[in-house]
Amino acid sequence: MLRKNKKETFLSRNFNLQEPDCKDEDGTFNGLICPKEQADLLKKTNFLAAVSGSIALYRGYYDLAFVCYGGALVGYLYWSNPTQSWRRMLDIGFIQFALWWHFYRSFGAENFITYVILTSIGAACFTLGWIFFKLEETWAGTISHSLVHVFANLGLIILYMGRIEPVGLIDVDFTFN
């Protein structure tokens, strides 16, 4: 049985981004957690992690590049078919690892403060997206989640453009400073 979901929202009034006509009885969109069109947008903004990874690689931050490329890979894997599955758990787990690894590596970095501010804005966008999703405003939730990708990767790029001290086993400094 399908539920109708035709409420008017700010985005539907002003940007012609209509909420999906219906959800399945289980609360999904043909088994997906969001409509395919919205998942495709998230898959595209997720690609920003590969851009960040390339900058990290160029700057000689190989561990951080690996983490960015890994995030791009698991994000692509998940957003290609966003269901409640092992791909979702892999995406969530790897992104949490990536976030904590970047925080660990960023302490003492030249652009630490700017990185933390932009990452915090991204985290706020994630929370806002979750709220919109619970309010069944899927487009607003999707755009908010896309902004997570934008702000987080902008923070990473700025972090990588400054000096980051090598740590632990990664004690070789290959940067071009």
Summarize the structure.
This protein is mainly α. The protein has helices spanning 10-15, 36-46, 48-59, 62-79, 86-106, 112-134, 138-161, and strands at residues 2-4, 22-24. 65% of the residues lie in helices and 3% in strands.
Q: Any overview of this molecule?
A:
With 177 residues, the protein is mostly helical. It has one domain. It contains seven helices and two strands. Strands 1-2 form a two-stranded antiparallel sheet. Helix 3 runs parallel beside helix 7 and helix 4 packs antiparallel against helix 5. 33% of the residues are buried. The model has no long low-confidence stretch (mean pLDDT 86).
Features:
single chain, 177 residues, mainly alpha, two-stranded antiparallel ribbon, 7 helices, 65% helix, 3% strand
Low-confidence stretches: none
Sheet with most strands: 2 strands, antiparallel
Structural class, please? mainly alpha
User: Quick one: overall form?
Assistant: elongated
Return the string of H and E elements: EHEHHHHHH
**Average pLDDT, to the nearest integer?**
86
Q: Which band does the percent of strand residues land in?
A: under 5%
What is the first-to-last residue Cα distance?
61 Å
Percent of residues in helical segments?
Answer: 55-70%
Q: Within the largest sheet, what's the order of strands?
A: 1-2
